[in-house]
UniProtKB/TrEMBL annotation:
<feature type="transmembrane region" description="Helical">
    <location>
        <begin position="6"/>
        <end position="26"/>
    </location>
</feature>
<comment type="similarity">
    <text>Belongs to the TspO/BZRP family.</text>
</comment>
<feature type="transmembrane region" description="Helical">
    <location>
        <begin position="135"/>
        <end position="155"/>
    </location>
</feature>
<keyword id="KW-0472">Membrane</keyword>
<keyword id="KW-0812">Transmembrane</keyword>
<keyword id="KW-1133">Transmembrane helix</keyword>
<feature type="transmembrane region" description="Helical">
    <location>
        <begin position="47"/>
        <end position="66"/>
    </location>
</feature>
<dbReference type="InterPro" id="IPR038330">
    <property type="entry name" value="TspO/MBR-related_sf"/>
</dbReference>
<feature type="transmembrane region" description="Helical">
    <location>
        <begin position="78"/>
        <end position="95"/>
    </location>
</feature>
<protein>
    <submittedName>
        <fullName>TSPO protein</fullName>
    </submittedName>
</protein>
<dbReference type="InterPro" id="IPR004307">
    <property type="entry name" value="TspO_MBR"/>
</dbReference>
<feature type="transmembrane region" description="Helical">
    <location>
        <begin position="107"/>
        <end position="129"/>
    </location>
</feature>
<dbReference type="Pfam" id="PF03073">
    <property type="entry name" value="TspO_MBR"/>
</dbReference>
<dbReference type="GO" id="GO:0005741">
    <property type="term" value="C:mitochondrial outer membrane"/>
</dbReference>
Amino acid sequence: QGRMWAYTVGFTVLPHVGGFLGWFMNRKEIPVWYEKLKKPSWCPSRKIFPVAWTVLYTGMGYASYLIWNDLGGCSGKAVVPLGLYGAQLALNWAWPPFFFGARNLKLALIDILCLDGLAIGTMCSWYRINKVAALLLVPYLGWLAMATCLTIRIWKDNPEQKPGKSE
């Protein structure tokens, strides 16, 4: 029982690691660069993002534990459902360095579009295994839909500068 508690916490905390590192590495770009971008009127306040991601990462992390547990750990049956989850998590973590770090809006857009597909694939593969785990991804998919629309609008409304031009 004690070991299962550790797995529950580990899986639940894991998504937060990349989220925190992404924020930490790019935190200086937010007031300097991001605030100057043209954004749509429906763009959420900066204060909402850490709260939203804390809730979303917790839900998806716990859901991944449920899948792992239902499939008996890292068994052959877990390769596709947890592989999809791991791939979408990697793209999730890659978005902030592309967007804020490299300031590459096109690469960030490609990343989030691929992320959308993998997150949907993850939810579909999980639904057959554990409906609660799949449903825990619904808020995440909703937020991703908004984030994708926001990324598209920012990409369209802020033409990237050519290399060598100063800001």
